[in-house]
Amino acid sequence: MTSGQIDALSDEQLMSRLDGPEVEAALAHLYARYGRTVFGVGLKMLGDRSMAEELIQEVFLKVWRSSCTFDPSRGSFSTWLFRVTRSVALDLHRKRANRVNPVPEGDSHLAATRDGSAGPQEIVDESWSSWRVSRALDALDAPHREVIELAYFGGLTQREISLRTGVPLGTVKTRTAKAYRSLREELALGDGWLVATR
Predict the structure, then answer these.
(1) Which terminus of the chain is more exposed, N or C, with fewer CB under 10 A?
(2) What is the pLDDT of residue 116?
(3) What does the pLDDT look like over 37-83, one tens digit per residue?
(4) Cα dihedral 162, 24, 52, 137 in deg (nearest 10)
């Protein structure tokens, strides 16, 4: 298959080639289409350029290794990719949190580390918030989750989401509004649960 023919393939068709002889070309094309977006997600979620670069490698390795778990009937490739990206980013965040410098004995357990990075309490708070948002996103159905992931993690405008997904712009706007409303409600429920358990 020529490069031009591979360029014309959909994301789903490229995914189906990840277990065949065209694996390198298929993966390279997926990387060309989504690498910058995955990097942007990493930078936004992890706040560190080198961690975002590590994220890209880990995500596309996971795309290759886990290609059999992609099911086009459950959503688009981009939605699946953003879920993989979010999962890998959270894993990298946890790994980074485990490397926090210990606070010297006698210092407050809430103190920041010597290098100025977040202390243990800040890391716990950030992890708790990330977990809550992740759970709230998982509670959305696939079409609503997709617009949020493409907008927030992918940095796409509603018009760009419409072009990428083939969904009319008005529908994208409606889904976005409904998804934000659902996220607010889901996160508010979590706040109520937290208050009720104290």
Answers:
(1) C
(2) 52
(3) 888 888 888 888 899 899 999 999 999 999 888 888 887 888 888 88
(4) 40
- Within 13 A of 92's CA, how many CA atoms are on the CB side? 24
The Cα 163–Cα 154 span in angstroms is 14
Task: Please check the confidence at residue 94 and state whether its pLDDT lies above 70.
Answer: yes
Burial 82-105 (b: 16+ CB within 10 A, else e): bbbbbebbbebbeebbeebeebee
Q: What are phi and psi of 116, to 5 degrees?
A: 90, -5
| CATH code for the domain in which residue 163 is found | 1.10.10.10
User: What's 2's domain CATH number?
Assistant: 1.10.1740.10
